[in-house]
Amino acid sequence: MGKFVPLSIPNFEGNEEKYVLDAVHQGWVSTGGAYITQLEEKMAEFLNVPMTVACQSGTAALHLALMECGVQPGDCVIVPTVTFIAAVNPVKYQFASPVFMDCDDSLCMDPEKLRLFCETECEKKADGLYRKADGSKVKAIVVVHVFGNLADMERIMQIADQYGLKVIEDATEALGSKFTEGKYAGQYAGTIGDFGAYSFNGNKIITTGGGGALTAKDLNAAKHAKYISTQAKDDVHYYIHNEVGYNYRMTNLQGALGVAQMEELPEFIERKQKNYSVYRELLQDSKTGYLLPFREGTESNKWFYSYVLDRNVVKAELRDIITELEKEGVQTRAIWGLIHEQKPYVDCTAFQIKKAKEYSRRVINLPCSTNLKEEDIVFVVQVLQRVLEKLSQA
Ligand SMILES: *Cc1c(COP(=O)(O)O)cnc(C)c1O
Fold first, then answer.
1. Is the CB of residue 86 below 6 angstroms from any atom belonging to ligand 1?
2. Mean of the pLDDT values across residues 66-87?
3. Which family, according to UniProt (predicted)?
4. Domain 16-261 classified CATH 3.40.640.10?
5. Which end of the chain is less enclosed by CB atoms within 10 A, N or C?
């Protein structure tokens, strides 16, 4: 077998085995146990927020956030089309409708189009913003920090303020990304809007197998989210419930993995950043495309490395490029299928989607695991250029 470099694999170099075995030996494996609270505290400390709520998945965290925003059947929620679908599905869980927005050159939501939509397609009334098309109330915006790149939060927050919209940050890919300049200097992804959701799925910068977390600007909202994530249990001895709850709490086994991973997070971020620099160096004079930069005035966790193809040079289909790279030992992937084109969402409003379509033809994501060696990156870049050259001649 030749060399094979996977796209993104987890890294368990620390106390993972020790803590998970400890949880097993203690018998605390389910939705109670000290590792869950320890993870919540570690995250709160890292993010510099009063409280985080550990969940079974990032999707669960996003669903809790929408419920805490008061999103109800018939409401409208503004979402990006460039995202993993989990940022959008919880809107449907609430029987609300998504409206899809385009991306800017960071692949995150375009604030200019967001403003235009609110201004031209909606009407501001005393009690909030309403869509002209169907009279539905626009409640919230879900902003995804795509691949660890921070969205233009200054402008998005300003628009949300102006129109009275809640902001949910999908920071599932951006744990550790922060602003270094401007109004939000020093603040992390997920701590700027009303809610921030994180994911610890296997491909994220840290993992608990499956898992996630939620943070909220309003401490009472965070506390209430935690309450409904644990079946809204008001009395632990007599099982009294005053609301409909969910089984969304993280398990202690996941928590044990998470505590170990949190210990390594700063190191993981450093490696992601360093490996990105190695790629950038090797690709700086590339004739087939460029490495997508991260937003200025931020320090990103650099979770994913997006190579943007020059379509005047590379004519081959993405599918063929990805297949050929895989054959040559380099695993890559495209962005995502745009969500407004997915079957459950084809009837929803999509507002002036243009850049998203272009980028979805142009981006391939390169291997980015935290255990990549410099020689792996050299190999990836050599294979990439060879395959692109070959397919361009064909
Ligand atoms: C991973 C991810 C999620 C969902 O997280 P899960 O933990 O898999 O439920 C949501 N949004 C985006 C953008 C993601 O990448």
1. yes
2. 98
3. Belongs to the DegT/DnrJ/EryC1 family.
4. yes
5. N
